[in-house]
Amino acid sequence: MNIEINISNVILETERLILRAWEITDLDDLFEYASVNGVGEKAGWEHLKSKDESLEILKMFIDEKKVFAIVLKENQKIIGSIGIKECRQDLDKNLENLLGRELGYVLSKDYWNKGIMTEAVSKVIEYCFKILKLNYLVATYFNYNIESKKVLEKLNFKFYKDIIIETRYNTKEESTLMLLKYN
């Protein structure tokens, strides 16, 4: 079961990061990290090709009110995003009467392998369970994206099932759905 999400007035902080709603002035930072070849592709979308395309995505983030901008405190630069999306419809019956959401995330290539995404996702998990009162979270990674798998395992997500995901550019990718239940 899904619950309505609106993060437009939410600000979360960690030691190195601020997680907040996107603003129209974030366009340059979004384009800077999301236009790098390999960044979007790890999350199932092609890297952004233009500022106009980036503006469309940014407006979608702002309108949907479900995606946090990841801001590095030391320089106030946006280096990624974390979305709290509606769950896939292919979950088992034992979850259908529980409140849950699916997390999706992407990070600037310049900040890979520094523990930043683990730090950011950990804070969003805390928000989802303690503030939103969700019962579970799921997240998916493409099987070739070992870095994403490591983030989820560090945060105690457990294997749920193997799935095939059709990407935005009509490829089918072997993927793994991971589950984290709130105790």
From TrEMBL:
One of its GO terms (molecular function) is acyltransferase activity, transferring groups other than amino-acyl groups. The keyword Transferase applies. Residues 17-183 form the N-acetyltransferase domain. Keywords: Transferase. It comes from Fusobacterium periodonticum ATCC 33693. The keyword Transferase applies. This is Acetyltransferase, GNAT family. It comes from the Bacteria. Pfam families: Acetyltransf_3 (PF13302).
